[in-house]
Amino acid sequence: MNATRPRAVSGPGPGATLHGAVGAQAGRSPHAVAVEFEGTTLAYEELEARANQVAHGLRRRGVGPETLVGIRAERSLALVVGLLGILKAGGAYVPLDPGYPADRLSFMARDAGVPLVLTQRALAGRVPVPGTGTGTGTEAGTEAGSEAGTLLLDDTSVWAAEPTGPPANLSGPAHLAYVIYTSGSTGRPKGVPNEHRGVINRLDWMQRAYGLGGHDAVLQKTPASFDVSVWEFFWPLMTGARLVLAAPGGHKDPAYLRDLIVRRSVTTAHFVPSMLAAFLQEPGIEEMTSLRRVICSGEALPPDCAREFLRRLPWSELHNLYGPTEAAIDVSAWHCRPEDLAGLTSVPIGTAIQNMRLYVLDGTGAPVALGEPGELHIGGVGVARGYLGRPGLTAERFVPDPSGPPGSRMYRTGDLARQDADGVVEFLGRLDHQVKLRGLRVELGEIDVALRSLARVRDGVVVLREDVPGDQRLVAYVVPTDGDEFDGPLARKELAAFLPDFMIPTAFVRLDALPLTPNGKLDRGALPAPVRRQRRPGTRRR
What we know:
- The protein is 25% helix and 25% strand.
- It has 542 residues and is of the alpha/beta class.
- The radius of gyration is 23 Å and the shape is globular.
- The protein folds into 3 domains: 1-17 and 194-431, 3-Layer(aba) Sandwich (Rossmann fold), CATH 3.40.50; 38-171, Rossmann fold; 434-526, GMP Synthetase, Chain A, domain 3 (2-Layer Sandwich).
- Strand 1 (33-37) and strand 2 (40-43) form a beta hairpin.
- The longest helix has 17 residues, at 44-60.
- A 5-stranded mixed sheet has the order 13-14-15-16-17. Strands 18, 19, 20, 21 and 22 form a 5-stranded antiparallel sheet that branches.
């Protein structure tokens, strides 16, 4: 089977883990600043000591290899300490986004079977009480910290008596590092478990490619519930760089990000392409002279956006990366250079990173000819284990890899792509109804299920529209159960009980019936554009 030729390298030692790599760096630069957040800093030795205390506390409560531990915390020093502490205990972390609805968080906690949730005092009353893996969790509602199964990261009395030295290491590269939940087409999110060795391989490649050092500062602004955050958190801490945390909510504010990059001399940052396009409209970005590299991923990067970036910030590199949650962060990369962008109608997602393989296959699993479209498959050390507790779905999407070692699997991405003779891959779109909205994966089927569950909806479907270039939004088409009226604001409120904000449609269009093709399938091309309300003068689109 033809595939992108992987760059096979030795990488870190055979027993490498994320927490082990961070600990090794702390030994090399104990007094250097590791993390900073709104005027407060932690040196590497301080970060290690606090994370070790969390690890000892978790270990005494039964956490070890393959134990999933929930963590629900706003971006803060405590969040970094908690993530590292879970790994040091031998466990794997399950991020529970503070912005998600309570029902969704409760489902995730039960589905993962987490025995503990680490949180902060301000959030403790809204943390899902974890079940025992039997799906019996409830919602915490008593005094902060009093519920069994929740521990407060910012309560020093919980951790003060714990040793500051590292606990005995019980986990290895084949153990889980994290489980991140993605949107699911069946109406429920699905957990994706990734192992240390895959993440270590990905971060080792990143270090070889870009070479962070003590002079660097990496901006951390991606929510922990999305896998880009993994490299933002751990790559700088493995290399002696400075981790600069954006304020909660700050990742949505271009002016704040520009000022933070300037004030804290940030050298490395990530942007989803749609956010990068908005960021490039911000006045004064030429002041960011410290910025040396920007990583793009999460959605297709338009060539015009890449060209504008290189024109406005010619001293900074721009790299386009690609990878689904079902692999350890990213699996391919392409360096955007002005001379290579000339004449391009799409920016390639590039070639496979070290120890990874990319295949473009037809519907029978056979390789397509070079330059022909097919489904992109991913093989190599970074492929995830599958879907947590869903063997049927795992077998469907994670299939045997005939080019890999015995027993290895490749992931069917559902992405349409083509590949040239040099192994460079171009993303052409999706083969199903999964979409990316501002870099966030959205299974439209999950929103459809939620929409059709509403009491006043007989039928409905949600699509991603871009009626104005650059302005993507989710639109719901609704056939009410009776009458002519449909209350869109009420529907949004009801959907917010389970769906996160980014998955809630911004417009509702009432229809007497969904349009169908002659063979009875939904005719998406016949769905009308929603009427756009005129904004009052002086108002800004949020």
